[in-house]
Amino acid sequence: MRYARRLVAGTLAAGALALSLTGCGDSVDPIERMGRKATEERTSPSPSAPASPSGTAGSAVAGDEAYRKWGLNAPVQYAPKPAVKPQIPPAKPGRVQVIDRIPVPADDKVVFLTFDDGAEKNPEFLKMAADLKLPISMFLTDNIASSDYGHFEKLRDNGSNSTINNHTLTHPNLKTLSFAAQKKEICGQQERLEKRFGTKPTRFRPPYGNYNDDTLRAANECGISQLLLWRVSMQINNFQYAEGSALKPGDIILAHFRGPAELKGTTEIEMTTRMLQRIQEQGYRIGRLEDYL
């Protein structure tokens, strides 16, 4: 019961947090604007960096020089794949699981990176993610990301074990739609992603974190098994927390594929560097979300 109450509270907070992204001092512009606007790609050259070593049984570390190249003061620390996956309560019949934090032990300081939408397609970010071996769970919206799905395919295939997941066709507030309309948004993106990338995702994130029982039923009928939310979102410079003022073990972090037009002049790389710095400052490692699910 304690977990259920915490999950409901986290879900409501996550929804409120997502909606607040358009109105806080460090916030970004609304997602609808990105769907109507092409993002300018930057192609400035970047020096090459040595490949990162493979992960070890302890803390895996990106290449010794890669972190300096991308503005970090220390190597990024990675959590190894857990020997036993955390126990997550099963979904109700005909529904999908709702997950807003991974239930890891209280002393396991691991967090998870997720990026949404797909407006920004900066080739330099591909180099950064590859150099640092960032495991990113991508949640892509078709009308925003599809102008260059190849960009996200490169990110998936860069050796960091990143994944591509469903974030609807057009990024609506699903709670305002009928069951049939929600199913069209979710199943339609399932079909687009399968056609483009070869497989249907099994994980889904509702835009703005907003969903209802129709969402859970529609997602299940579309072949989704898990609906992923978050407890922490990365703004331009700092984290915004659904509760408290610091990261907690198992936090799922929300970030976005956004560039200077949406981040008040800040680049995707600068935002990501600051996010990694904040993670390091709090002594956390980065895990691959799918290894825990």
Q: Could you spell the SSE succession in H and E letters?
A: HHEHEEEHEHHEHEHEEEEHE
Just give the CATH class.
Alpha Beta
Number of helices: 9
Counting DSSP E segments of at least 2 residues, the number of strands comes to 12
Concise synopsis of the structure shown:
The protein has 293 residues and is an alpha/beta fold. The protein has helices at 2-20, 31-35, 66-69, 123-132, 142-145, 149-156, 179-197, 213-221, 268-281, and strands at 60-61, 77-78, 97-99, 110-117, 136-140, 163-166, 203-204, 226-228, 232-234, 239-241, 252-256, 285-287.
Structure write-up:
Helix content is 31%, strand content 15%. With 293 residues, it is of the alpha/beta class. The protein has one domain: Alpha-Beta Barrel (TIM Barrel). The longest helix is centred in the first third of the chain and has 19 residues, at 2-20. The relative contact order is 0.21. Residues 1-61 have low confidence and may be disordered.
Topology (SSEs and partners):
Layout: H1 2-20, H2 31-35, E1 60-61, H3 66-69, E2 77-78, E3 97-99, E4 110-117, H4 123-132, E5 136-140, H5 142-145, H6 149-156, E6 163-166, H7 179-197, E7 203-204, H8 213-221, E8 226-228, E9 232-234, E10 239-241, E11 252-256, H9 268-281, E12 285-287
Helix pairs in contact: 7-8
